[in-house]
Write a structure and sequence with these properties.
Helices cover about 30% and strands about 20% of the residues. It has about 475 residues and is of the alpha+beta class.
Amino acid sequence: MGKSEKVLQLCRENDIRMIDFKMVDLDGRFRHITIPVERFGERIFEYGIGFDGSNYGYAPIEKSDMVFIPDPDSAVMDPFVEIPTLSMTGDVCVIGEKENRPFDQYPRNVALRAADYMKATGTADQMLIGPEFEFYLFDTVNYQVSPNGSFYEADTRQAEWNTGTAEGGLGYQVKHKGGYHIAAPQDISYNLRSKMCMLMEDWGIRVKYHHHEVGGPGQLEIEVELGEMVDMADKTMITKYIVKNAAAKEGHTATFMPKPVYQEAGSGMHVHMLLFKEGRPVFYDKDGYSSLSQTAHYFIGGLLKHAPSLCAWTNPSTNSYKRLVPGFEAPVTIGYATSNRSAVIRIPAYAKAPEDKRFELRSPDATANPYYAYAAILMAGLDGIENRIDPSANGWGPYDYNLYELSSEQQARIQSLPKTLEEALDALERDHDYLTKNGVFPERLIQIWLERKRKESRTISQIPHPAEFGAYYDL
């Protein structure tokens, strides 16, 4: 049975009328194109669906013709459309004279190359990761940016600021930074989160749990079970798609912005990680610090050495650096420790079994393109192993104390994460050789990313801010 026949059989069984192809642009947004089921056949897997890659942020206009090749194993019914539709993801190729070849800048292809490089080094044959998805759920969001004015406004009836308004309703508001694991009736999104999780399970994403997070005005979290790195990048895209569409379907709006509410907890996307080789855990050693092997420590060393340049991929928005500030459980210093949420790398004390022994990188957020971010994390860790970068010998810990409570003199002796997107981009420009090994990250992709993100940062920095009117208008 050919690839197309398997898909068409699924279409017949579910009365599918349309087939939707989802692709990922440079920034990490889904784009899509849809065809009637009658136009679907084996030729699509050979010749693909043509599209203009320049509009996705990739190739220059003069070499922008590309083709999308769907993955039949990704086929699933899309629950958010009126017409029965099968959704498929896949890979992007550039058009050659004799045959098409994988496009080296396409996010999924970068992640696949990183996984192949890991196997080629002999370090491991599998990287498992587990992202934590934090986001805010609002009732309304309005914003505008124009030459003569700009503003934003986000609201939810559960926010503390609505205690004195008609929107407050029954009086069950959540206090400032008081939302962690809050229960009903304050937890007004409980049923919606359960629906989101059921949709994720239907799509093949194994959910660990969901709960209300610290942020009082609707901050939520869904955590998933560990999975293979490239597959989890796929599932990160799908999770964001499900969360945003499930919210919109019920008249709400969800955002993965790192800091949508001033002085409230920011939303991260902490990434848990561990390596396996021939079914055995690479990161476990009962006699090591926190039961981590020397290889695990070298991996940590690579992450910490390259932490500033990693931020250009894991925290690629100007808003990212409004989250990475002291006082909100977000990391600001480069270091590692056990059970310490103020360190950029935390080793969970509860993960004791050899096959569970891992650590989490707490700096990333979900404005990242997950394929680039996860691939960069893996390449940084592998560089640490290759060059035997010991985090303790380099003065990065372990910090088994609260890094937020250090004196200014002590803080000055500890290296910090970038404070702005421009700082992260400067670090990437200086430090990216670990990414380009074996062509995993093409040099051209890094240059496009730097140019694109610098332009984005400059544009936003030039826009007058409402807070500036409050501070300077009467001077």
